[in-house]
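Reviewer comment 2.1 asked that we show a complete input and output for one of the modelled complexes. We chose the guanosine-5'-monophosphate case, as it is the one discussed in the main text.
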Amino acid sequence: MKALKERILRDGKCFEGGILKVDNFINHQMDPILMKSMAVEFVRRFASTNINKVLTIEASGIAPAIMVGYLLELPVVFAKKKKPSTMENMLTTTVYSFTKDRSYDVCVSKDYLCPGDKVLFIDDFLANGNAAKGIIDLVKKADAELVGMGFLIEKSFQHGGDYLREQNIHVESLAIIDSLDNCEIKIKE
Ligand code: 5GP
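Response of the prediction step:
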């Protein structure tokens, strides 16, 4: 998506270990106009897909997911990173975060991820695919169906996208970063 690619090149910053910071418009300050355009693009790309729920993981996925849910007029559920003591009927999985170098539990209530749900997962980044694998596990445990996964930014050099596409999952990424070597951002045309 042209507007996102241009914004990444203008405002994105590279860090050691293949990390791209987009705090200026996605991860800290947010640009709602761009966020809306990205959601419109997801709606276009998943137009032929039968969806009844949008799923994401807190915190950075919530903004794009709610925009998509708003446009599709569908409920948006976010998987939580800490199990609330008051929540019953939980489905849980463990996700390894390479940006934080630790594992954490992700959970969602069976009240909101239900058998037969047709789930579109939306997140900010796809890197090694660990968060996505956790979501696949949660959707399976809920007896729901994962009908697509949409990412604002995919880092193709970390290969999570290869894994998901090999599983025949419909993956859409609005910008694909081929390399961050030498702190130079190379985006797929
Ligand atoms: P994965 O599980 O695919 O390895 O990583 C996905 C998660 O890690 C995303 O939800 C995102 O929060 C975080 N992440 C991975 N790579 C980056 C990055 O380069 N920049 C930022 N800001 N977050 C990232």
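The chain has six helices and ten strands. We note this here for comparison with the apo prediction described in Section 3.2.
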